Amino acid sequence: xxxxxxxxxxxxxxxxxxxxxxxxxxxxxxxxxxxxxxxxxxxxxxxxxxxxxxxxxxxxxxxxxxxxxxxxxxxxxxxxxxxxxxxxxxxxxxxxxxxxxxxxxxxxxxxxxxxxxxxxxxxxxxxxxxxxxxxxxxxxxxxxxxxxxxxxxxxxxxxxxxxxxxxxxxxxxxxxxxxxxxxxxxxxxxxxxxxxxxxxxxxxxxxxxxxxxxxxxxxxxxxxxxxxxxxxxxxxxxxxxxxxxxxxxxxxxxxxxxxxxxxxxxxxxxxxxxxxxxxxxxxxxxxxxxxxxxxxxxxxxxxxxxxxxxxxxxxxxxxxxxxxxxxxxxxxxxxxxxxxxxxxxxxxxxxxxxxxxxxxxxxxxxxxxxxxxxxxxxxxxxxxxxxxxxxxxxxxxxxxxxxxxxxxxxxxxxxxxxxxxxxxxxxxxxxxxxxxxxxxxxxxxxxxxxxxxxxxxxxxxxxxxxxxxxxxxx
Length: 474
Ligand SMILES: Cc1cc2nc3c(=O)[nH]c(=O)nc-3n(C[C@H](O)[C@H](O)[C@H](O)COP(=O)(O)OP(=O)(O)OC[C@H]3O[C@@H](n4cnc5c(N)ncnc54)[C@H](O)[C@@H]3O)c2cc1C
Prior knowledge:
The chain is α/β, with parallel strands linked by helices. The chain has helices spanning 19-30, 70-78, 110-115, 121-128, 143-150, 153-168, 177-180, 182-191, 194-205, 222-231, 278-284, 290-297, 341-344, 373-388, 413-426, 442-464, and strands spanning 3-15, 35-38, 50-53, 56-59, 85-87, 95-99, 102-105, 214-216, 235-236, 240-245, 254-260, 263-274, 301-312, 324-326, 335-339, 353-361, 396-407, 430-432. The chain folds into three domains: 3-48 and 219-299 and 410-464, FAD/NAD(P)-binding domain, CATH 3.50.50.60; 119-205, protoporphyrinogen ix oxidase, domain 3, CATH 1.10.3110; 301-407, Protoporphyrinogen oxidase, mitochondrial, domain 2 (Polyamine Oxidase, Chain A, domain 2). Helix 8 crosses helix 9. The N and C termini lie far apart (48 Å). It binds flavin-adenine dinucleotide (FAD). Flavin-adenine dinucleotide binds next to helix 1, strand 10, strand 13, strand 17 and helix 16.
């Protein structure tokens, strides 16, 4: 029989223990506001997870952080993780794109751009005209349309499409420039030219240090685990939130139903933060707004399989001198990209071995994520064999499949966000965050988590007439 308990009112309930929910909870706790976080799974971290197997340190989801945002660095600092940070080796600046069966280096300077065989002479000359192309009046253009219009088809095929496939698992024909790459969108609006704007920004930034790619000594799961550790029993795993009821005439606060083992708890809360993926959020906010529910349901997630392969170094001809390689959709390879993980970070593979982390599926080949793990490993190995000159079978094969991996900010995405703002306005104390809103990268999730915590603490201070703690960096 299910046991039912009803709690006293708590200030804030957070639903979801991925990095979005954890960073919101961490900052609220840091500001001195009591929180209760519920995570359905038996571990925190959501798509962030790391496994150590036979001396290989393998990421199931994200592998690297960029350090673009202050919020990420502040969170690492406040969580006491600075000493755990592991910077990428300098070699990571070299990246490759596959062309006619070979990894071709991405040019890093104007001189190497002029001489690279990645792009034809006509594609290079076409770029000289880019500053003279008038901005389009289109407000929500696909990445493909934008790039073809301003930079040409070859730049789409051999620069932008591989990047969009490898990083976002997305289709440049479908994803919205404005929503996925707001900075690129802004360059055209502000400077009338992407190239001109980039050059101008490069000079503006030349005095500030470039962000450095990093992870943690024991992998990315260090971050969610540490945040959960600091939260202690304020973060509960194996606790699935079944529903949320809005305040009504008989109850002045939200009621959150949580199932844990054989127990059902009803938690009363002044504020609720929903940080689950959009398809889960849609279910949870059903009693609040049918418009928001419909919009959330139409946010597409692409599937992704991460295929980690370990080899003996001596069995690979290629020097693996770089970050890795991306595969353009116009080339015949099945995988989207391959990270040369043990070249990027020290300590990712045992001595004399290398670790390659490969991505397969996405919107380009979603059907491949239906294959058995063994088949996927074989498929990736047979592609890499020829491309990198691999002479032996892998000594490590690990496959992690996520059916709904990365939310896609497709055309029309921007309008979908209006109904979320509307429901938050209508229900003060309800906050919706997560990778489907305001950026998919780990650091965007952290920045949005902290911003949510700041908003809640401002409201909390107003209601309780408490001055904002100095720690709040607004
Ligand atoms: C393969 C892959 C590679 C990536 N690579 C990078 C990278 O290199 N760098 C980068 O910055 N980003 C990368 N990303 C993106 C980034 O990792 C994610 O966007 C981000 O971690 C998502 O965090 P989240 O908390 O919003 O969602 P999630 O991690 O999905 O967390 C949501 C949590 O909510 C829980 N939950 C769901 N329903 C309920 C419920 N009813 N009750 C309680 N809990 C519930 C889930 O169990 C889950 O733990 C990658 C993503 C993937 C999939």
